[in-house]
Amino acid sequence: MSDKDLGLLENVIENFHTAAKLAKKNYRNLDNYSLKLLNYSENATYLLSSTEADEKFILRINRPNYHTKEEIEGEIRWIIDLHKYSSIDVPQPLPGDTGVFVYEQVIGDLTYYSTLFTFLEGVAPDENNEEKLASQFELLGEVTAKVHVEAVKKHDEFSKVKRLTWDFDTILGEAPKWGKWQNGQLMNPERIALLEKVVKVIKEKLEYYGKSKNRFGLIHADLRLANLLVEGDKIKIIDFDDCGFGWYLQDLSSALSFIEDKPYVDYLIAAYLKGYRRHRELSKEDIEIIPTLVLLRRLQLISWLGSRDNDTTRSIGPDYSVGTDALAKGYLDKYEGVRG
């Protein structure tokens, strides 16, 4: 990274710090709490803690020009519903002094939105511990099936919630939410030609699969390992920032983010499905669409890695594009020209 790019990144993070300090003022009971940046990726996430109290909180500052206030309120509405009507462990949104959940901070010509959440204990799954990861994916399958049962049951109600849609058009279409995959890192004519063939097959498969009520609805959409917390025999889901409308099994493909080429992936999928089927039935067509959704997610992440500048994109981006070649060729060998 050049000194110029580093300076720009430092300015971006400094703006998040300023927004966090302003946001904290909306919670008088947190005056004595200190702010510590936990993570900067899509948004900035801060830990609020105090030497005078055991309770901790999470303050999220949303990236400007990404979600509208109405979309964030839609996310909060769904999390509150999950917290109230299910046994799923999710962070609980907390209102500020004026009773609202989403506050606005204006810095220059940029608007930042902030939300306070309860803090959940736990650690992210370890991608290098295959045995534990398989059992955790089985548990994750159970948890997400419960989320999907709730989403299907309240499909008509949730369809009115203002959230993003994650389908072919918004991921790989002409105006994708995370940018064009063609602008990913280390894209060359040969790689683009290969992935164009993959995109064509993905489009055909998804059109055939369709968006019926039992296949497409409100999902978390970003269940990568960093958004999961394990504590004992419990698995907890955090960061609903990208929740929206998509195929239910995209929650499986997103759980495989950045590890799609690991040799144990098939075992993780089998474990997830074992847990999932304890609470929700899956058809033959559901199972058959999984490889397509995995490649859809892989290309979505290539887009994201090419359109963002943070520690993750800089460390993963180039190798991720190169590593996609083998997955793409294997997918085409199996599915190109095969109907359904």
Automatic annotation (TrEMBL):
Output this protein's name. Serine kinase
Similarity comment: Belongs to the pseudomonas-type ThrB family.
Ranges of residues in domain Aminoglycoside phosphotransferase: 42-282
TM annotation in the entry = none
What keywords would UniProt list here?
Kinase, Transferase
Looking up InterPro entries in the UniProt record yields: Aminoglycoside_PTrfase, Kinase-like_dom_sf, Pseudomonas-type_ThrB
Query: Lineage of this protein's species?
Result: Bacteria, Bacillati, Bacillota, Bacilli, Bacillales
Q: Which organism is it from?
A: Psychrobacillus soli
Coiled-coil blocks: none
One GO biological process this protein is involved in is: threonine biosynthetic process
